[in-house]
Specification:
Blueprint lengths: L1 H10 L5 E3 L32 E3 L4 E5 L2 E6 L2 H8 L9 H11 L29 E7 L3 E6 L5 E8 L1 H4 L1 E5 L6 E5 L3 E2 L1
Parallel strand pairs: 1-2, 4-5, 5-7
Antiparallel strand pairs: 3-4, 6-7, 8-9, 9-10
Family: Belongs to the DNA polymerase delta/II small subunit family.
InterPro entries: DNA_pol_a/d/e_bsu, DNA_pol_delta/II_ssu
Keywords: DNA replication
């Protein structure tokens, strides 16, 4: 955490940064995950509410009128566990299914641990995002899908950074994606 805190303290002085917890981070394991606690970040703490934001998982963003929904991947990973072996259904197919179902965690709370909610389901998609990304996947994949009402959504499966050293950049105007391997440069 100290290394990550140093990295955030340097990065967030240049650009805005949002940090979302994942499956193995010091946050609750049940969904929706709460943001990482500020006490974990001694060096970057002064940047909170300026250029550094801790967000929950899943999370919605509105960036220059581009609506984004993102998860760190537990929803798709849980669905992968229970697909029939004969079906070659990848992350993008499962993401498209959750988008069409309008529910980003259809296996919660049955197999994906989820906090019981009495008032509202936090996993319902009341609107179609322009961008729907899922992190910590096996490989980079992306495609555009069109909904029944003609709305389009860019689906992005982002590879695990810890396993690949890869990040994905997306142009907010064209929705084009670029995979960057920080260990080897652009691909």
């Amino acid at each position: 955490m100290d290394t990550f805190d140093n990295f955030l303290a340097e990065l967030a002085t240049s650009i805005p940064v949002d940090v979302m917890p994942g499956a193995h981070d010091p946050s609750i394991t049940s969904w929706p995950q709460q943001p990482l606690h500020k006490a974990l970040f001694a060096k970057s703490r002064q940047l909170f509410d300026k250029s550094l934001t801790m967000v929950g998982n899943p999370n919605w963003w509105d960036i220059d009128s581009v609506v984004c929904l993102g998860t760190s991947g537990q929803n798709i990973d849980d669905m992968k566990k229970y697909r029939p072996n004969a079906l070659d259904i990848g992350a993008l197919d499962m993401m498209e299914l959750t988008l069409r179902l309008r529910h980003c965690a259809p296996s919660a709370p049955d197999t994906l641990w989820a906090v019981p909610m009495t008032d509202a389901d936090p996993f319902l998609m009341s609107k179609s995002p322009h961008v729907y990304f899922v992190g910590n996947q096996d490989r980079f994949e992306t495609k555009m899908v069109t909904g029944e009402s003609g709305q389009t959504t860019r689906l992005i499966a982002i590879p695990s950074f810890a396993a690949t050293g890869q990040i994905v950049l997306m142009n907010l105007h064209t929705f084009e994606c670029e995979l960057i391997n920080l260990l080897q440069g652009f691909e």
